[in-house]
């Protein structure tokens, strides 16, 4: 355990600490969905560090300390987290949640995020979405759903998000403080994409509801939008 706090890894430090054998979060007993989510959320960004320190109204301080001291700090300090540390967290999630299989079964990352952010830490939803002018939906992450696109062989994240929002007639009600995106799922038998290129920046201009944008024909402020 590492009682001190460590900042997220950046640039050369990230390469030096995270590259090589025995790096990352050790997998054990179908933990891959949680390992990947925790690594993405904390290794190289501080956007969600409030989860580690802030005393939220419903916050379970024991789960918060396990997350901070046994997983995030060791990951940022040495680049490695033992499987037993993640199992400790999974045992607590099983105890606090309504599901008894968090310690042995693979889950959807969204189920894990909803449990730890909403039920255990009491964090306000990160995203506000609206579909086709209907009522706003609050959520913690966005999972990309889309049909197979023949022209997208090796897509980047920007393309996938735009295609998914367009096909679902979705808009972001406001600019999110944190935009957690789950890539298209696939099983052992079928892979929608062999590779997905990470977009280091995401342009959400066209995804925002009622956001002023310029007309592609004349350059003035647009009054109509064509999908």
TrEMBL record:
The keyword Iron-sulfur does not apply. Transmembrane segments: none annotated. Its main location: cytoplasm. Pfam families: UCH (PF00443). GO terms for cellular component: microtubule; spindle. Keywords: Cytoplasm, Hydrolase, Microtubule. InterPro entries: Papain-like_cys_pep_sf (IPR038765), Peptidase_C19_UCH (IPR001394), USP_CS (IPR018200). It is found in: Cytoplasm, Cytoskeleton, Spindle. GO terms for biological process: protein deubiquitination. This is CYLD hydrolase. It comes from Spizaetus tyrannus (black hawk-eagle). The gene is Cyld.
């Amino acid at each position: 355990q590492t009682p001190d706090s460590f900042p997220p890894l950046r640039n050369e430090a990230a390469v030096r600490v995270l590259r090589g054998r025995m790096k990352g979060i050790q997998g054990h007993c179908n933990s891959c969905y949680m390992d990947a989510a925790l690594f993405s959320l904390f290794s190289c960004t501080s956007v969600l560090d409030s989860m580690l320190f802030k005393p939220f109204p419903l916050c379970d301080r024991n789960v918060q300390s396990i997350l901070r001291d046994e997983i995030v700090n060791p990951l940022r300090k040495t680049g490695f987290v033992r499987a037993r540390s993640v199992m400790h967290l999974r045992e607590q999630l099983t105890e606090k949640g309504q599901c008894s299989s968090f310690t042995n079964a693979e889950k959807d990352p969204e189920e894990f995020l909803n449990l730890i952010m909403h039920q255990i830490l009491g964090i306000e939803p990160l995203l506000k979405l609206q579909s086709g002018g209907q009522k706003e939906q609050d959520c913690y992450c966005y999972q990309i759903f889309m049909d197979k696109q023949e022209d997208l062989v090796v897509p980047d994240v920007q393309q996938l998000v735009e295609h998914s929002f367009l096909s679902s007639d979705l808009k972001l009600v406001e600019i999110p403080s944190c935009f957690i995106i789950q890539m298209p799922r696939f099983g052992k038998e079928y892979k929608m994409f062999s590779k997905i290129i990470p977009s280091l920046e995401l342009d959400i201009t066209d995804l925002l509801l009622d956001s002023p944008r310029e007309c592609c024909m004349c350059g003035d402020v647009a009054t109509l939008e064509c999908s």
